[in-house]
Structures are given as structure tokens and as C-alpha cells.
Target: tRNA (guanine-N(7)-)-methyltransferase
Amino acid sequence: MRLRNVPGAREVMIENEFVFTEPENMAGTWKEVFGNNNPVRIEIGMGKGRFITTLAQMNPDINYIGIEKYSSVLLRAVEKQDELRLSNLRFIRMDAENIGDVFAKGEVDRIYLNFSDPWPKDRHAKRRLTSRQFLERYTDILKDDGYVEFKTDNRGLFDFSVEEVKESPKWELTIVTYDLHNDTDLVEGNVMTEYEEKFSSQGNPICKLIARLK
Ligand code: SAM
Model:
């Protein structure tokens, strides 16, 4: 993704009440942050945040945390949340590589990955958010029957992701579709992301998988 640097975005993140920019010691504290025991669901690589903000509006009894590496991208979601002030939505600006420092084992109920960066070069495979290295990190934070939902229009990344789940002994695939929007069983309740809207309007089929901890 081409990134437009927005001057001042970093400072906004540091001062904003809904954003955590130094989350390294927050494992085990999310019940206190939200002030309740509701399930916590996270989106990694949330971009401008339409997906997670929509889910938070639809489901007030579930807590949502959007994770994004770049302040300039996160800014749009933060501005929206400044208006909406949803009590069940927070953001973390971080590289998800260190996600194990941010959540305790079992603290996360579900992980959403939407249109994750493909990192097409083989030598960068471990940076893909569905690589076995990332799946291993997710086992450290998900609850026992927790799962990962992943959507993309990138068939190469999707095929890689299916194989990574199959190769990871702690995981099983429960759903795989290569055309979500034409799958009548799965499309109901689908919340579109910014990228999903863009790529599906160009005629690209959207793939989705769900991988569950065994
Ligand atoms: N999920 C959004 C959507 O579907 O519209 C945005 C998709 S965009 C292609 C991928 C986003 O993931 C970018 O905003 C990028 O900065 C973020 N990202 C990529 N790797 C990340 C990582 N390791 N940790 C946190 N965010 C990451």
C-alpha cells in the first residue's frame, strides 16, 4: 500500500484517549480498560477502520480493538471514533509482530485479518499475517475455541494461507470459500472493508477462510 504521510498524525495518536501507542505492558488489563468482561475481538491491519467501527456499532456487548501499524492510516478511524465515542472500541498503533506482549493467553476471542499485505517475495513470507509464525503468535493470545477470520482478493496469498493453516498442527480450517459474495450461506452478515468494496467493485472474487484452534 502506498502511504501518504499525514503531518501531526503521530502526535494525535499519542494524545488520543481511544488509542494506545505503548501497549507492551497491557497483557491482562483489557477487562479494566473496557470496564466489563465482554469478549474482546481484534482486527490486525485495520487500515481506515470501517470494518471494526461498523462491528462495534452493531454489537455493543462485544469489545473491539483495531490494530494498525501506521498513524497516518489510523487517523481516519480515530477521527470517526472521536465523533462516535463508542465505549466498546479502542485502537492500538503497533506492528503486530509483538502482539504476544499486548494480550494474555485467552484474552482474545476472535482475530480478523482483512486484505492483509501480500508480501509477495518468498523471503518475506514470515511477514504475512497468515504465516505460520503469525499463527503461532495468535495461539498465545486466543482463547481455547477462538478463531481467525481472513478475507482477501489476492488468490496467491489466500492459497498460501490455506496451506499454512493445514501445516500448523494447532489449527484447523472450518470454512474456505473462493467467492464469498456469491456464497449464499456465508455472505449474510458480511461487513465490507474499504479494500473489499474497492476490489469487489472491480469484479475480483473475495476469498475467505476461518481457522479455529484445535
Ligand atoms: N483491513 C483494511 C481493509 O481491508 O480495507 C486495510 C487493508 S491494507 C491492504 C493492510 C493494512 O494492514 C495497512 O493499513 C497496513 O499498514 C496494515 N498492516 C500491515 N502489516 C501490519 C502489521 N504487521 N501490524 C499492523 N498493521 C499492519
About this structure: Strands lie at 19-20, 40-44, 63-68, 89-93, 108-114, 142-152, 171-177, 207-213. The pocket of S-adenosylmethionine is lined by residues 1, 44-47, 67-70, 73, 95-97, 114-117, 193-196 (CB under 6 Å). The first helix runs from residue 9 to 15.
